[in-house]
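Figure 3 (text version): structure tokens given as input.
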């Protein structure tokens, strides 16, 4: 029978320190009542207890905790481990302990991992928000320390020069992402309310546009102004505006009294444009961004121009006749005119052919030569090959069966087996040649009938 552990004084003092003492009963947010050192089973409205009675109620509550630990934990425990677990179970409850990873690690024989798993129970609902509570972090730390404290003076030495601590990246979850919140329990009449200690730190607010003015913004505005003066629109030139106000005769849009830009009627449009003076601000592109003007190359006369002109003139003439005319009459051998020069180097005029669609086409059928027939042996040869195969097969089987064993590598059985395999090959070849001969004879007969 396994020994039954009992809660020691160390566990009682640890629980009393973190649970606190409440003389009068107070109602919890879930509707229950609490009194003394976290006692809820028999607490009721208007009840009061002294410190001694509160400790007696605590010992009464620890009876169920000790019984649950002795029944659920199968691994051997020291007194310090049992006391730390008693405080831990009293805080999270029996149902949560049976489903926790702490109990699983304990029964697996991993007490150090079980102690680390105790630190994961550090959050609580405060004002409808699930947050890390500072008091729970401290309580888990004390319980873990008591759990890992060996009995007596049996401390395991871990000198730093020999065991240099390194970062454990697998334990990142032990570091809370948020700052643990300090809470305080206050009474509002008979009701117990939990509040934060101070207001949460507000999120940083982005600065306004006026506050964002600084050296970077001033430098950006200076660069923008400089670029606007270099790459400006045609109507945004301040010098042009001043010149227009002082000398209105230089405005491009205003008609000049001494210049008439209307071209004469008998002058071509392109000559009129060339003769008209250019406006000073017509081109918005600066001179240093203009593309260099490329003079057009003189066009060389193409050698196909005479042929193209002839085709164009021939296309205008009507072609063909009526559908009821004789097609042979349309084929007229036309002699080239004597006065027209014939260019032998012209690819379109040399090697001209007249194609008559109505003339019968000359088609020479290709000569199909029959395939040479493969020489075949006579029936006597095939019969001799089949008999030879059967003789080899029978002789080999007989020799391998009735011959004496021995003879080394090439014994009688091996020779008989090889002779039998050769006989089977000869017989198969004879049958194949016979079937091939019959098939060719049937094919020739079919060709003769057709």
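Below: residues designed for each position.
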């Amino acid at each position: 029978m396994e020994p039954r552990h009992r809660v020691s004084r160390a566990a009682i003092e640890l629980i009393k320190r973190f649970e606190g003492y409440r003389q009068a009963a107070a109602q919890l947010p879930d509707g229950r009542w609490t009194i003394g050192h976290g006692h809820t089973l028999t607490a009721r409205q208007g009840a009061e207890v002294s410190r001694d009675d509160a400790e007696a109620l605590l010992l009464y509550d620890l009876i169920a905790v000790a019984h649950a630990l002795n029944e659920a934990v199968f691994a051997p425990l020291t007194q310090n481990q049992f006391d730390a677990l008693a405080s831990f179970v009293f805080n999270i409850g029996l149902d949560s302990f049976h489903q926790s990873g702490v109990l699983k690690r304990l029964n697996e024989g991993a007490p150090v991992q079980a102690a680390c798993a105790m630190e994961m129970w550090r959050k609580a609902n405060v004002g409808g928000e699930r947050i890390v509570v500072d008091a729970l972090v401290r309580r888990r730390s004390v319980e873990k320390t008591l759990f890992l404290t060996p009995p007596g003076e049996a401390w395991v030495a871990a000198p730093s020069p020999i065991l240099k601590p390194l970062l454990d990246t697998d334990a990142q979850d032990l570091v809370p992402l948020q700052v643990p919140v300090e809470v305080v329990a206050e009474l509002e009449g008979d009701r117990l309310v939990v509040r934060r200690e101070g207001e949460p730190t507000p999120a940083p607010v982005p600065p306004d546009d006026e506050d964002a003015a600084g050296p970077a913004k001033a430098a950006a505005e200076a660069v923008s102004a400089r670029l606007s003066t270099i790459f400006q629109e045609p109507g945004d030139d301040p010098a042009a505006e001043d010149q227009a106000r002082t000398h209105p005769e230089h405005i491009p849009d205003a008609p000049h009294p001494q210049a008439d830009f209307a071209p004469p009627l008998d002058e071509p449009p392109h000559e009129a444009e060339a003769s008209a003076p250019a406006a000073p601000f017509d081109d918005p592109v600066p001179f240093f961004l203009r593309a260099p003007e490329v003079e057009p190359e003189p066009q060389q006369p193409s050698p196909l121009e005479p042929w193209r002109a002839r085709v164009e003139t021939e296309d205008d003439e009507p072609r063909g006749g009526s559908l009821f005319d004789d097609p042979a009459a349309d084929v007229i051998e036309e002699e080239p005119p004597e006065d027209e020069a014939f260019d032998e180097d012209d690819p379109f005029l040399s090697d001209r052919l007249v194609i008559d669609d109505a003339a019968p086409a000359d088609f020479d059928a290709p000569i199909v030569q029959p395939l040479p027939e493969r020489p075949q042996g006579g029936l006597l040869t095939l019969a001799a090959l089949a008999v030879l195969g059967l003789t080899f097969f029978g002789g080999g089987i007989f020799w391998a069966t009735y011959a004496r064993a021995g003879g080394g590598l090439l014994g009688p059985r091996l020779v008989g087996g090889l002779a039998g395999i050769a006989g089977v090959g000869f017989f198969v070849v004879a049958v194949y040649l016979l079937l091939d001969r019959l098939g060719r004879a049937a094919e020739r007969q079919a060709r003769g009938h057709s």
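The beta strands are 22-27, 33-36, 123-126, 129-132, 183-188, 191-196.
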